[in-house]
Amino acid sequence: MAQSPVIYALTDKRARILGEIEKAKDHLADLQDQLAHIDGTMRLFDCPPNAEQKPIRTRPRTFNRGELTRLLFDLLRQHSPQTTAQLRDAVMDRKSMPSEAQFDIHRRVFKAMQRQEVRGAVRREGDGGVVWGLVR
Questions:
Q1: Average pLDDT, the chain
Q2: What tens digit of pLDDT does each residue of 43-86 get?
Q3: What pLDDT was estimated at residue 121?
Q4: Are 81 and 131 in contact (CB under 8 A)?
Q5: Among 84, 74, 81, 88, residue whose Cα is nearest residue 126
Q6: pLDDT (tens digit, 9 = 90+) per residue, 20-41?
Q7: Phi, psi of 91 (to 5 degrees)
Q8: Which pairs from 44-49 meet CB under 8 Å and 24+ separation?
Q9: This prediction's pTM
């Protein structure tokens, strides 16, 4: 008896996730080895590792320095005025971002536009929602 496509897809997805878990475990073991080597080297210099040190959390950079602002100005030059939501959607399209990032990108676009408003480069237009336009 042949497997249904649903069972096949679920089995395949499960196998892929198991593979990712194994890869993550290997990566974790490598990081723990590196940490042990660094701790050992610190002890050689009579500097015991600080057990209470908080980890520095890093997140992947979505935009290079100034990239979001340049992108927003390009969008406003092409189609001014635009709402924050329109700018967000255009940025997400250009950067091929997943829809899960929508809230974060909306916040970042709004903050970037506020900074440019303080500098006098853009202004709020219209009634109701926030509509941004270039200062001519």
A1: 90
A2: 899 988 887 888 888 877 889 999 999 999 999 999 889 999 99
A3: 93
A4: yes
A5: 81
A6: 999 999 999 999 999 999 999 9
A7: -65, -45
A8: none
A9: 0.58
Q: Which CATH architecture has domain 67-134?
A: Orthogonal Bundle (1.10)
Residues 6+ apart with CB under 8 A from 134: 73, 76, 77, 80, 121, 122, 123
The residue count for the chain? 136
Domain boundaries, the chain: 1-57, 67-134
Cα(29)–Cα(23) distance, integer angstroms:
10
Taking the C-alpha atoms of residue 26 and residue 20, their distance in angstroms, rounded to an integer, is 10
Pairing of strands 122-125, 82-83: unpaired
In angstroms, the CA 25 to CA 36 distance is: 16
Q: How many degrees, rounded to 5, is the angle at CA 86 between CA 82 and CA 91?
A: 115
124 contacts: CB under 8 Å, gap ≥ 6: 117, 130, 131, 132, 133
pLDDT on residue 129? 66
DSSP reduced 3-state for 91:
helix
Percent of the chain at pLDDT > 70 equals: 96
Count of C-beta atoms within a 10 Å radius of residue 17:
10
Structure tokens at 107: 């916040």
